[in-house]
Amino acid sequence: MSNMPTAHRFNRVAHPGQKSLSILPKVFGVAILLATLFTAWIPGETFSQNLAESVRRWLTPQPEVQLTPAAPQWRIGIVSGHSGYDSGAVCRDAAGRITLTEADVNLNIAFLVQKKLLERGYQVDLLNEFDSRLNGYKAVALVSIHNDSCDYINEQATGFKVAPAMTARDVERSTRLTQCLINRYQRVTGLPFHIGSITPDMRDYHAFSEIDPNTVAAIIETGFLNLDRDLLIHQADLVADGIVQGIDCFVRNESIEPAFTPTSP
To answer: What is the pTM of this model?
Structure first.
């Protein structure tokens, strides 16, 4: 038995020159095989031209691929009026039992608006009435959804109303959001714009002074819970469409034609 250590017997190091020479036949063999295959597939002249063209392309610096940036995800805030605070307007039957609350109607519409905006690629925050996130809230737009009284007032108590946040730094943009909401909501739902019943509570809505002054905001009362109840409950999807189209109009700077005309006192 040899006295040579086992490690020495199995770790003979080849001279660098020997290693390189041993690889050369394999390289030449592969090159010949590839050349044969290419020659078999492509006529000689064409092969030479194609090879030259390929080499030229390999040696020519290629322009960097410019990736198209993804469309920005606009952040929208949707306040579900009275949610997390109180019931808002309360509807009762003849026996005095509660049959409907404004807060429930608002929340259903707000959920639908959120869903539709998400489908259009927006980032959406669904907010309670006095949500802590409203303090300094930053977004391209914020819309608070409410509804009017359950009580029968008269036959003119039908329609919607919108008021802008006049506390914003850019009042013109707030007015633009309001105009978009009025135009698109009226067009989609067919409800009249009830300009005569816009209240100081709407104009001085608490959230307007809580959010970041650069956030454009508006409050919308989507209808009266008496004469407009059927639309607000059974066609809530249509109501949500009107709001979403109004937000789209503002964000995408769409035209507003024809200009809205107040159709209700």
So the answer is: 0.72
